[in-house]
TrEMBL record:
<keyword id="KW-0238">DNA-binding</keyword>
<dbReference type="GO" id="GO:0045892">
    <property type="term" value="P:negative regulation of DNA-templated transcription"/>
</dbReference>
<keyword id="KW-0804">Transcription</keyword>
<dbReference type="InterPro" id="IPR036388">
    <property type="entry name" value="WH-like_DNA-bd_sf"/>
</dbReference>
<dbReference type="Pfam" id="PF01614">
    <property type="entry name" value="IclR_C"/>
</dbReference>
<dbReference type="InterPro" id="IPR014757">
    <property type="entry name" value="Tscrpt_reg_IclR_C"/>
</dbReference>
<dbReference type="InterPro" id="IPR005471">
    <property type="entry name" value="Tscrpt_reg_IclR_N"/>
</dbReference>
<dbReference type="InterPro" id="IPR050707">
    <property type="entry name" value="HTH_MetabolicPath_Reg"/>
</dbReference>
<dbReference type="InterPro" id="IPR036390">
    <property type="entry name" value="WH_DNA-bd_sf"/>
</dbReference>
<keyword id="KW-0805">Transcription regulation</keyword>
<dbReference type="GO" id="GO:0003677">
    <property type="term" value="F:DNA binding"/>
</dbReference>
<dbReference type="InterPro" id="IPR011991">
    <property type="entry name" value="ArsR-like_HTH"/>
</dbReference>
<dbReference type="GO" id="GO:0003700">
    <property type="term" value="F:DNA-binding transcription factor activity"/>
</dbReference>
<dbReference type="Pfam" id="PF09339">
    <property type="entry name" value="HTH_IclR"/>
</dbReference>
<feature type="domain" description="HTH iclR-type">
    <location>
        <begin position="1"/>
        <end position="58"/>
    </location>
</feature>
<dbReference type="InterPro" id="IPR029016">
    <property type="entry name" value="GAF-like_dom_sf"/>
</dbReference>
<feature type="domain" description="IclR-ED">
    <location>
        <begin position="59"/>
        <end position="226"/>
    </location>
</feature>
Length: 226
């Protein structure tokens, strides 16, 4: 099975591929290829694009570098507390070009949740996490994002002024979220931490409810990165 998993990794290294192409490249049965790819994705060894194509994930680079990711270590300590305070789903996103990748999450044990699997690769055109990462991106990235975004440059100005962003039914119908920037020891924005949940429960102004707790969590993450 290890040889087959390595074969899946090698196949995706040739270029992003969906399940049919993965089977063609590896010669594996459809069920086996899917099971291995999903398992590798769960550990961050593969990532999946919104159109369902797999490509190598960030854990490969971390393993090659021989050093743990300090942001993931910080998230493991901070995200569960934010989840317990809010009772909602919590995510940590890192920007990759004009996409954002969920690199860590903490889910409530029960009830209706907004589950974003680790490794999910989302466009930065909608959602509070996208707004935060776009607001502190370089001008070229902002232009590319704003060309297709549900929000405007004026919204990004407000996000930078306020220090957090919120969204209601932007990324997914019925879901609201609020996000804040996470900074490293040098003060650079390296991620966005988010709280999300059903609009019916979290409300149409999630920032009013959770911004203070979210900003405290962002500060705790920065403290651990410093």
């Amino acid at each position: 099975m290890l040889d087959k998993a390595v074969g899946v990794l090698r196949a995706t290294a040739e270029g992003p591929c969906g399940l049919a192409e993965l089977c063609e490249r590896t010669g594996l049965p459809r069920a086996t290829a899917h099971r291995l790819a999903v398992g590798l994705e769960a550990h961050g060894l593969l990532l999946r694009t919104p159109d369902g194509r797999w490509h190598p994930g960030p854990t490969l680079g971390q393993l090659a570098g021989g050093r743990p990711d300090p942001l993931l270590d910080a998230a493991a300590a901070v995200l569960p507390r934010l989840r317990d305070i809010t009772g909602e789903s919590v995510q940590l996103y890192r920007r990759d070009g004009v996409h954002r990748i969920c690199i860590a999450h903490a889910e409530p044990p029960s009830g209706l949740r907004d589950t974003v699997p680790v490794g999910s690769r989302l466009p930065m055109t909608a959602g509070s996490g996208a707004k935060v990462l776009a607001a502190w991106s370089d001008p070229q990235t902002q232009r590319l994002v704003l060309a297709d975004a549900t929000f405007s440059d004026r919204v990004l100005v407000d996000v930078r002024r306020r220090g957090w962003a919120q969204s209601v039914a932007e990324r997914e119908a019925g879901v609201a979220s609020v996000s804040a920037p996470v900074r490293d020891g040098a003060g650079q924005v390296v991620a966005a931490v988010s709280v999300s949940g059903p609009v019916d429960r979290i409300g149409r102004r999630p920032g009013v409810r959770w911004a203070a707790d979210l900003l405290a969590a962002a500060d705790a993450l920065q403290h651990r990165l410093a």
